[in-house]
Design goal:
heterodimer, A: about 650 residues, mainly alpha, Helix Hairpins, two-stranded antiparallel ribbon, 29 helices, about 60% helix, about 5% strand, elongated, B: about 90 residues, SH3 type barrels, six-stranded antiparallel sheet, 2 helices
């Protein structure tokens, strides 16, 4: 048995999917959280359930709708589980009327009944079931109400089979029956309607005869048939609504009251700035730094203990060095930053689930529209401060192709959580008390560069294009504590796993290249090591932003491709090797990185922030941009811009230092 | 002569010109772009539907309208092409 889970964006589909399957897929409170279909099995059964992206219609114009309708039309689906937001039933039923035409059994899960109850919306379920000829179950996925009944109903096959459907007026229904007789498919009614709408994707089914029938119909109405079909669907829904739904009108909801503050003409933007500044200040500022010191002390302790232990068991010097200077130094330098990442993940998770994200898109659209982006670009940018990979994927919800491509190319500019270690390390050491402001300044610089790049791209590459913006404003919701804990934990765990796998392997390789020369002799001066040799090949590239031919800084920056935090890992290993330094904070007291000044530190941060993201994010860009050529263009653009910015920062900074 | 800018019941105008809190009925959709037109229809903006201008973004654009029991944000440029009749 194969079940397709279909519903509008933000109708709680993924929450229900997680409940039914017992998995934990990402949920959020903005339209378009699920951008790909996900497959699972209903708990303790072999019923396969597919979570399709949220859609409003089965029209041919957007990617998500095409994924969904191709799936429903072409693959064997035994049951459609149509989830409906009970608080906006009219718009939700519009999709239902289209699903019913597929002649696949449909069960309607009437979700968010708890909120509907509170708002005094009442349903006559008997009439609704009769009118739609489907089984309807009121549930609340968030409160887990009645979900068990839903599973039972599916298991027992105890639902209506929706065989009879007449929702259009006489002429339209007549034409549909005529066409149905002339097409050969199991979804004949669906196809007939699509042909009437003159859907370009079903044009191959048309014959001279069917064209003639449709032309005749068009003459009768004298209007665009696509509009007639939509009008008729809504007319039928209004009929059902009048019969079976009772709602109080014009109630002032909590959401309205909150919006009077958050969308206030004068307060909205200051509030937004304070929230964003607060998030980054907490994560990258004093509190974050304090946690880094805490863990740093722990790592130092482990490192010392391990040295003593290995010396006592008579381990060879090179193996002690491998464990202490390679593995512990590299992985430890990264784990230092775990607590502050947890702070960041927690704050972003709260932001995502409350419904505030959609508001940000709404009120900043004007600004972003000016530079050729969409208000919806804000969502990838904010998610991007966690990780660029899901951020790049979330750009799919942007309606316009150009805006989407630009957003994908610009999202990696936002400092992701893996760049946070670099920022904290440099800002903490070189800017002391002002480290919080310096960190925040980098985020604002990133936003400024994004707006500027977009503006230039718009005026050079995509001149004279207009686009539209359609967004549904969701209700505010209190975040679910259970989900937030899960979300933060899984992100933190992913970071730990990466430290224990990718970073560990990279650390061992770095240690190896640093400990040996090309003749494989151990115990050489670092300057003669293989790593130094590789670093010297590229150090001229970094000279204009560092003011020093530093192979160590150059080779570390390159490793950002593996994972951005590896830059810090690599620096820690190299510093620890050359002097007795085991704590990340003390990297700059070692001779090899002693040349850094405030301006070269800021320049180096800027380079690492804006240059090509890690391989994971590059892969995501490749997938979402569609071609390898576009991916290369994006990577070269990012790295080139990063170099220019970093050089500018260093040269200007040096001037200021001289003047002061 | 003083020209009153106050909207009267029965006035025909673009949806983007509606005042905050006003209700109106959609008369016709002049959108040319096929994809956008279909999207508007899908979201429930059909002829005859009642809309209410609910919120205006702090920077004046986009605009949030309420229809069919939910809220939808659209840019002014797109609302320019939707003709409505004022109800109240």
């Amino acid at each position: 048995m194969r079940i397709a889970l279909v519903g509008n964006q933000n109708s709680g589909k993924t929450t229900l999917f997680n409940l039914l399957t017992g998995t934990n897929q990402k949920v959020g409170n903005w339209p378009g959280v699920t951008v790909e279909r996900k497959v699972g099995f209903i708990r303790n059964t072999d019923y396969e359930i597919i979570d399709l992206p949220g859609i409003y219609s089965l029209s041919p114009y957007t990617l998500e709708e095409n994924i969904s309708r191709n799936f429903l039309f072409e693959e064997q689906v035994d049951l459609i589980l149509n989830i409906i937001d009970a608080t906006s039933i009219e718009r939700s039923l519009y999709l239902t009327t289209q699903l019913l035409e597929l002649k696949i059994p449909v069960i309607i899960a009437l979700n968010m009944m708890d909120i509907a109850d509170k708002r005094g919306i009442k349903f006559d379920l008997g009439t609704l079931e009769k009118r739609l000829d489907t089984t309807i179950l009121p549930i609340s996925a968030l409160k887990k109400t009645n979900v068990f009944n839903l599973i039972q109903t599916i298991k027992q096959g105890d639902y209506r089979r929706n065989l009879y459907q007449h929702i259009y007026d006489h002429d339209l229904e007549n034409t549909i029956s005529q066409l149905e007789e002339r097409v050969d498919t199991k979804h004949s009614r669906f196809l007939a309607v699509k042909m009437i709408e003159r859907d370009p994707l079903f044009i191959s089914h048309a014959t001279e005869e069917t064209d003639f029938i449709i032309d005749e119909l068009e003459k009768k109405y004298f209007r665009d048939l696509e509009q007639i079909v939509a009008d008729e669907r809504y007319r039928y829904i209004e009929l059902i609504r009048d019969e079976a739904v009772e709602a109080k009108r014009d109630m002032m909801t909590t959401t309205d009251r909150l919006d009077q503050i958050f969308l206030n003409r004068y307060l909205a933007i200051p509030i937004f700035m304070v929230i964003m500044f607060g998030i980054y200040y907490l994560a990258a500022g004093p509190i974050g730094s304090w946690t880094v010191d805490m863990v740093g002390t722990g790592v130092e302790f482990v490192s010392e203990w391990m040295t003593t232990f290995l010396t006592n068991v008579n381990a060879s010097p090179w193996s002690i060095s491998l464990v202490v200077d390679g593995m512990i130094a590299g992985v430890g330098a990264i784990l230092n930053f775990l607590p502050q990442l947890i702070i960041l993940f927690l704050l972003i998770s709260i932001l995502e689930t409350t419904g505030y994200m959609a508001r940000i898109s709404f009120f900043l659209d004007r600004v972003f529209q000016k530079v050729g982006l969409s208000g919806k670009s804000l969502i990838p940018f904010i998610i991007g401060s966690g990780c660029s990979v899901p951020a790049i994927m979330s750009a799919r919800t942007i309606n316009d192709e150009t805006e989407k491509k630009m957003t994908i190319m610009l999202t990696p500019f936002i400092p992701c959580s893996a760049k946070l270690p670099i920022i904290t390390l440099f800002a903490g050491y070189f800017f002391g008390d002002r480290s919080g402001f310096v960190s925040a300044s980098l985020y604002f610089l990133a936003i400024f560069i994004i707006l500027l790049s977009a503006y230039v791209m718009k005026n050079v590459l995509f001149k004279g294009k207009t686009s539209s913006f359609i967004l549904e404003l969701p209700e505010y919701k209190l975040p679910s504590l259970r989900y937030i804990i899960y979300d933060v934990f899984s992100k933190a765990w992913a970071f730990i796993v990466r430290a224990g796998s990718v970073i560990l392997v990279a650390s061992i390789i770095i240690w190896f290249l640093l400990s040996f020369d090309f003749r494989m002799t151990y115990g050489i001066a670092v300057d003669d090591s293989m790593l130094a040799w590789f670093g010297k090949l590229i150090s001229w590239i970094f000279y204009p932003m560092l003011g020093e031919m530093s192979w160590a800084a150059s080779i570390s920056a390159i490793q950002g491709l593996v994972a951005k935090e590896q830059v810090v890992g690599s620096m820690a290993i190299i510093a620890g090797y050359t002097s007795d330094v085991s704590e990340a904070r003390l990297i700059f007291t070692s001779g090899i990185f002693g040349f850094f000044t405030a301006s070269s530190a800021y320049a180096f941060m800027v380079f690492n922030l804006f240059s090509a993201p890690c391989f994971g994010a590059i892969g995501a860009m490749r997938q979402e941009l569609g071609t390898t050529k576009r991916m290369w263009k994006a990577v070269l653009f990012q790295t080139g811009l990063a170099w220019v910015l970093a050089v500018l920062v260093f040269q200007i900074g040096r001037l200021i230092e001289v003047i002061l | 002569m003083k020209i009153s800018t106050k909207l009267k019941k029965g006035d025909h105008l673009a949806l983007s010109k509606l005042k905050k809190g006003c209700r109106a009925k959609v008369i016709s959709i002049h959108t040319i772009d096929k994809a956008l037109r279909r999207r508007l229809l899908d979201m429930g903006i059909t002829e005859g539907v009642q809309v209410k201008l609910k919120k205006i973004a702090p920077l004046g654009d986009p605009i949030d309208i309420e229809l069919r029991g939910y809220e939808l944000c659209l840019r002014k440029a797109d609302l320019d092409l939707i003709e409505v009749e004022v109800i109240s």
